[in-house]
Design brief:
Elements lengths: L4 E12 L2 E12 L3 E5 L6 H8 L9 E9 L2 E2 L6 H7 E4 L10 H11 L5 H14 L3 H4 L12 H12 L6 E5 L7 H14 L4 E5 L3 H7 L2 E6 L2 E7 H6 L4 H7 L5
Helix pairs in contact: 3-4, 3-6, 4-6, 6-7
Amino acid sequence: MTSGFMVEMLDLRARYGRREVLKGITLDVQRNEILGIIGPAQSGKTTLLRIINRTIDDITGAVFTGRVKVDGEDVRQVKDVFALRRKVGMVAPMPVGLPLSIFDNVAFAPRMAGLRNRHQLEERVERCLRQAALWDEVKDRLHTRATTLQLGQQQKLCIARLLPLKPEVILMDEPCSALDSEATLGVEELMLTLAGRYTILIVTHNMAQARRVSHECAFMLLGEVVEHARTEDLFLTPKDSRTADYLEGRYG
């Protein structure tokens, strides 16, 4: 029977050189839901994301132990790390578009996979831009450079660029930190639209955002998960005094 969890972590530990960053994380993420990860800086939130798709491998001196499974597969045992990163996409804090047209940004991955049929490419690009709630805004300027888009549109384009790879998990590391309130709302609405088709983990310092978009929420502090619960329960009736202190702005 398939587990209800898309991502499973057991006794996950990580360090950069001598500095311990994660201290025994055990955390499960429900399939096709949004998990919000909150906590002050230097809590290990971004490191947690980097381990799930093994981008931590690219950091000199970084090591991790413990078990992380994505859809039942142990990421430490994955031989093709690029296949893992197609399955587990990552959205950075600042939109990073390719120096190409809007169309070519979305078509890039299918072309790399060998798709050359123009009609099929056009269908794939339109479908992904629609899923990213961007099609109506850009359909008449697909061949203009992506850098001409507003920041919020560029972030949606980065998400659209992941979708042709058919990811199962989308990791978002402060995806709205560079955006104004209107663009932030647009990305949040997109996340809620994508939920149900993808499992999403979002790291955010914006507690109101975590409350708006996540189904479950985990509070991290100094490399540990202090509390993990359904979002409303965590915000309204936190069980740990450290969680309550953070939510009330006493530190962090």
